Amino acid sequence: MAELKLPVSEEEIRKLKVGDFVELSGRMITGRDTAHHWLMQDVREDVMPYMKDTVIYHCGPVVAKNDDGSYDFVAAGPTTSIREEPYQADVIGRYGLRGVIGKGGMGAKTLAGLAEHGAVYLHAIGGAAQVLARAIPKVERVFMLDEFGVPEAMWVIEVDRFPVVVSMDSHGGSLHDEVEGESKRRLEELLK
Amino acid sequence: MAVYENLVETFVELIRRASTQLPDDVVSALEKGKAEEQKTGLAEKALGTILENVELARSISAPICQDTGTPVVWIHHPVGVSTRALAAQFHEAVRTATERKFLRPNAVDTLTGRNTGTGAGRGIPFLHFEEWDEPRVEVRMILKGGGSENVGAQYKLPDSRLKAGRDLEGVRRAVLDAVFEAQGKGCAPGVLGVCVGGDRVSAFEMSKRQLLRPIVDTNPIPELAELEERLLREGNQLGVGPMGFGGKTTLLAVKIGVLDRLPACYFVTVTYMCWADRKAAVSIDEGGEVTWLS
Ligand code: SF4
Is there a contact between B180 and A187 if contact means CB atoms under 8 Å apart? Predict the structure, then answer.
């Protein structure tokens, strides 16, 4: 299994192919519905450095605040990505993201965006809240916590061997399209 | 009956068990699926991570998944027990379990978009009461996740697109279509609760009630038992696999219930339960003795 260090170069990302299993280590950021909308309303200079050449994780975590004011992720599985389809390709382009982590895959617009900008879609294991929280040893800082609330805020996190599968690559490949196409063929066979 | 007025802590424990301990029958089905997948393939890895997660959640008494779902509850009670008092206690238990982080604050005011913050809300938890002759209260609950709820479906037969008529072959075609449409989006591998017949309300309730059945059992109605087995086999032949990565393990079980219908209607109703098939049950007798049924 390959380990991928974040931040990552476009060249490294373009080497990844659909079906690769990778473990991520380094810094990334979370963001879901509210964050994506906000990122496209304006150019958010303050978060830009935390997005460039790393990945955004579609996750609404459960977070505990420690006595010293620091935070811990208590549960941190992926949320459904397709809701960000209208924004994702533009967010990748504007902020220089190299990837997106979520579940369920994304659509044609994002797939084209991945190819254009040199990025990938990484599928985490849906529901694996505890295993994934354990792979997030550190919360570095948070943006828009008061405005968006805990699940929607943008959390800058440190991950250690965070397991994902490349399900959409930067060459137009999509595991979701492959599996759906093959299962459609089998369905038609069964319903003959 | 005073013993049934002091159940909040028992209900909190019921919720804790459901949220943090995946039942043994579900774990066995996931293990069996893993053993059947190709070694070191994506499907096997996904199931391995899922099983590791289940183990970890149990050992630290933390929610298996951060979407702790909707508590859907069936309560049987003897004559003379107040269902209003039971409902009030269950609501309180949901609030307490949310405070103790066994549940996520999971109820959103649909009109304002604001989270109620307590885990409870209008229609959450969802409680069903039935009186029975036994001298005890029995509570069975599932925690129904949202991602999988989104891929549930209801078909109205006949359906010309699927060439599905008003018979069990039509039911088969509709259910396979639902499995195909869901792909991995409901956090496959899933358990299907199906209802044949009924109306648009009763059928969804019946389909969810099927999820209370053990993963391995035999439907008492022979033609449904046969259809369950066939749909499990054929659903897995679609090759969707865990998380939709491709593989042999798309479904863990198919359970079918039946309700009578109006002459004009023939519904096939499918509830998709994710691999995090969380359920728990408890019985409380007249003397206050608590027996865990799961
Ligand atoms: S579908 Fe189930 S396992 Fe997946 S995120 Fe929702 S509750 Fe969790």
Answer: yes
Architecture of domain B2-21+64-145+278-293: 2-Layer Sandwich (3.30)
ipTM for the assembly: 0.92
Q: In the structure encoding, which two tokens stand for residue A81, read together?
A: 């990505």
Give contacts of A 8-67 with B, CB under 8 A.
19, 21, 60-62
How do the domains of chain B map onto residue ranges? 2-21+64-145+278-293, 147-273
Residues B184, B187, B189, B191: is their CA dihedral positive or negative? negative
Active-site positions of A read 36
Q: What is the pTM of this model?
A: 0.95
Question: Side-chain half-sphere of A133: how many Cα atoms within 13 Å?
Answer: 25
Domains and CATH numbers, chain A: 2-191 (3.20.130.10)
CB–CB contact A103 B162 (8 Å) = no
Residues of chain B below pLDDT 50: none
Does A184 touch chain B if contact means CB atoms closer than 8 Å? Answer: yes
Residue A27: CB atoms within 10 Å? 18
Cross-chain residue pair B66–A77, CB shorter than 8 Å? yes
Q: Indicate whether A15 pLDDT > 70.
A: yes
In 3-state terms chain B splits into helix, strand, coil percentages (rounded to 5) of 40, 20, 40
Strands A154-168 and A138-143: antiparallel
The secondary structure of residue A59, as a DSSP letter, is -
The 10 Å Cβ neighbour count of residue B141 is: 26
B125 touches chain A (CB under 8 A): no
